[in-house]
Amino acid sequence: MKITLEMWRTFVATAEQGSTIKAAEYLCKSQSAVVHSLKKMESLLNQPLFQVQGRQSQLTLAGEQLLVQARALLARAESLEIKATDSALAQRQEIALAVDVLLPPAYWLPRLAQFSAEMPQVSVQIYESALSGAAQLLEQGLVAVAIASQLPHDILSEPLLAVRKHCVCGLSHPLASAGQLTDSDLKQHCQIVLRDSGSANRDSGWLAAQQRLTLDSAALAQQAVEVGVGFAWLPEYLITGRMQRLTLAAGNEREVALHIGLNPEFAHLTAVARLYELLIQTPPAE
Q: Would you call 225 exposed, middle or buried from its count of C-beta atoms within 10 A (0-12, 13-18, 19+)?
């Protein structure tokens, strides 16, 4: 029988933690399993690796000499695992990205096109999300990268861009011919909102209208506004010539800051790193 990687991990953990009890806690094993592994190593090497003094396990001279080599061995093994994972991704040929519906497609589609040209072997799965949806996908490990206004605090993220939303209605809607409007005026009409694609069931802001139409699709919300179903707060890219921008006493615009987040489990993968890099690039000045 040869010494396994798991035995080496147990040896290094015991040396670094200072006792078999702490090593067991660190490795999420029983103390008896740690002790058995160390005794098996000592038997195979035919020499003691630790001296037990009270509750402490101190390395012998032979143990100290092996510790440096053991650490190097485990580092090489970890590096090999990372490369194998990267290789597995290349074979699977797919990574997932969650994109908030507020982000203009004109921002991310050209970057995606460049990514596809650079890495034709990798497919990309896009999740269109709203409100808490992207954060939930990121936390669940279903996507490698997410863009949204709300991301988990423990996820590596950075500001991406600010999106302006405008209050609009269809040209045939009664509000289109009104002057300056107050919240009380808006409450009398149907508000079109997007459903939270996550399970948090968050709302996107002012929802005090007496009647609401809740939709799953930003494109459908756009069409509902155009035909006069109600009013909505839409990002600039969804506003068309068949809509009227409303004048509000409380302000005509809202600004939403979007962030981009990276799932740390995928951060070492070449394709994910490149996609993230392209998405955060500042577009060249025209």
A: buried
